[in-house]
């Protein structure tokens, strides 16, 4: 049996000492529970560290013990959900900006709207994003096309001028394969050769007539016609009016200083006016190039098309429109660009189609139907001739009956395939 000292036994009678032993006993007895609580807390901290902000917020909602804790936890959860939604939307938007397929872009836009609605974010700002991106791309491409066309037209004009000038200097009428520029030899494109030839003939004729007029012959016909067609030139320019009078007074009298000076004054003034007209024509040429670029873009584009009053422009330009309609559409589209040089592609289409329908009212679909009917009749006639050639014993009526029966069978098969396809997409 254990022995205790007298002092220890005496201390047991003191209240404070007894209380201390009691607390110590309680602490010793509660140690396993404290260890378990610490372990639980450590595990919770480790779990929280591996959670996303939203998972953490969800967990804190489950751990709330008071109304205040629950409200705070739910507020934190809403904030975390909104932030996670914005991150997902940013990722989807990056995919949309890198995408070129309009259908896939629309799907990504729909995903953005859906995520925004599910995560408490405003969805309105994401509606129409795909269309805006496509329009921005179209506008940028259109501006690039216009700049490229302007440079091309300018280069072509200069090449024509260089080529004609060099031909006149050499006294040669044959079009060279290259022209000499400050940058060296440049090959003449095939599409410019006709324009060079036409310009050379006109300029050489004017030069010859100019030299002849100095010797007393009448002015070149082109100058006379230009002055007659623009009487306001004489009214607004006293110097030109005086030059014309001097030339008329000295016609047939040989060369003279007064006549030579008068002809030089007249040709300089008229040439300046004609240059302005040529510049305007060159501007028209650039506008035509821009419209041609739009037509090519619509016809060759695989990703999207343009519409006018519910009809596909691609179909119109690629078979449904008649030659006259398409030509008129191009003319009216150029006119739209003249009136509004900053017009968008869709505005040019609208102006071109509106002008075309105004000039050719209600003819397009009727003419298309007539052409289609004519084409079908020609094909049927060719089939009948083939059947008659292979079955010479059949009468004309029998041949027609055979062909009609075959056409009906083919039509029923086509209807069947079409119905099958329609059901597949329902």
Mean pLDDT across all residues, rounded?
76
Uncertain residue segments = 414-426
Count helical runs.
16
Strand content: under 5%
Largest sheet: 2 strands, antiparallel
> Rg from C-alpha positions?
45 Å
- Measured distance between first and last alpha carbons: 96 Å
Based on helices, strands and strand pairing, what is the structural class? Answer: mainly alpha
Helix fraction?
over 70%
The strand line-up of the biggest sheet is: 1-2
Beta-strand segment tally: 4
Q: Secondary-structure element order, as H and E?
A: HHHHHHEEHHHHHEEHHHHH
Record the SSE blueprint.
Layout lengths: L5 H6 L3 H35 L3 H11 L3 H32 L3 H17 L10 H42 L7 E4 L2 E4 L5 H22 L6 H9 L2 H5 L1 H12 L7 H44 L6 E2 L2 E2 H8 L2 H17 L5 H15 L4 H27 L5 H29 L2
Antiparallel strand pairs: 1-2, 3-4
Helix pairs in contact: 3-4, 4-5, 5-6, 6-7, 6-11, 10-11, 11-13, 13-14, 15-16
